[in-house]
Every structure is written in structure tokens, then in C-alpha cells.
Amino acid sequence: YDGKTPVRLSFEDASGALVRSFTLAAHPPHGERLHAGANSFQWNLRYPNATEVKGFHPPVAAGGLDDTTQGPTVVPGTYTVTLQYGGQTAREQFTVALDPRLQVPPGALAARLALSLRVHSALNTLDEAINRAMAARSRLHGAALNALNAEIANLVQLDIKSSEGSLLHETKLRSHLAYLLADLDLSYTAPTAAESAVAGVLITQAQQGERRLAALTAGAH
User: Fold this and answer.
1) What gap in Å lies between CA 191 and CA 194, rounded to an integer?
2) In DSSP terms, which residues pair with 153 in a beta bridge?
3) This prediction's pTM
4) Strands lying side by side in the sheet with 77-85
5) What value, to the nearest 5°, has the Cα angle with vertex 89 and ends 87 and 92?
6) For 176-211, what is each residue's pLDDT tens digit?
7) Which of 54, 119, 152, 162 is deepest in the core (most CB within 10 A)?
8) In angstroms, what CA-CA distances link 116 with 45, 77, 106, 139?
């Protein structure tokens, strides 16, 4: 690596669908950094992280479920990595394999991934809607601003400022989605009926919240 030219790494599944991509450079604004010479890159086998709500401080798990925006883990199978650098493109196939000690029913991991991606998408979309709503607050006043603040507070707990903040402040919908994702990530099994049912409820609530935010910010100019 010459220490100057941006590098793009992308990972695709067996169908050719993009799973994740990374733009690497010597001085990136954020993310992975390269150095002149030989470099090593390790993918964590996850889909992209969801957007995070600005100003939200997730509490430390302390033995419980993580409240994070990390994407779901890919299923075992064949993948392709593409390296683009200096006008040249190189591709290589590789296999993601399950630990041979694990016995997983056919289709279980695909079902888990499908539900995880639905919940992850709902979390990402909700967080983006909350960020847009918070950006619109400076253009609202009086009752309209109070109503918007109340709706934002109904969707995300912004009063958490410390590692044990969740002991003092009620968790909200944004965190419920994140906790469900963490729960799905705990085992190599198909989602339970309860997990699927809860996912349906939370996704519906997220969509309703997004519509309320859109209505409350419709007059912001």
C-alpha cells in the first residue's frame, strides 16, 4: 500500500448481493486506517451497523444484553471479497463455515438472519427518523416543539449518561429493538415463536413512531 490511495473492500454473498463494504485510507475521517506497506484486514462477518441516535449513550451490558447497533452475523456459505485499489480489481472466493461441533437444523440460521435483518432495518430507520426530528427542533417553537420533544422521548431514552443509567431511566423502543437483536444473536437456532411475535410488535411500533415524527415535523421550515 502506497499510503495515499483509497482502498475499497467489498463482500458479497453467493447470490452476488452486497453484504458490506469498507473504504480504507491512510487518514480516514473515521473507521479503519491503513499504513504504507503491508496491511491486514479482518472482517467480523457482520452486516453494516445501524445508524445511532445522536446523543444516545448505551448503558454497559454488565452481563446482560448489549445495546448496540452492530449488524447481524452472516450465515455459513460461499462469499466473494473484492479489492479495488489503484485502478485494479482483484476478487477471491472464500467459505464461512459453522463450527463442526454445532448441530443446526436446516434453514435455522437463514431464518434467524432474515428476522435479524428485519429488526436491524427497523432500528436503523427509526434512528434515522429520530435524528431528522432532532435536527428539526431548532425550527419549531412552543406547543409544536413540546409535542416533538415528547415523541422523541417516547422513542429513545436520552437521559442515560452513565454506565448504570438504565437502572434510573426507563428504556424505550429504540433500545428494545437493539436488545431483541442481541437476543437473536445469542444462539445458532431459528427464532422462537416469542421472538418472532415480539419482533412484529416492535417493528410496527417503530413504523408508527416514524409516522408520528414525520407528522410533527411536517411544518418545520
Assistant:
1) 8
2) none
3) 0.90
4) 18-24, 7-12, 77-85, 88-96
5) 165
6) 999 999 999 998 999 999 999 999 999 999 999 999
7) 119
8) 14, 18, 17, 36
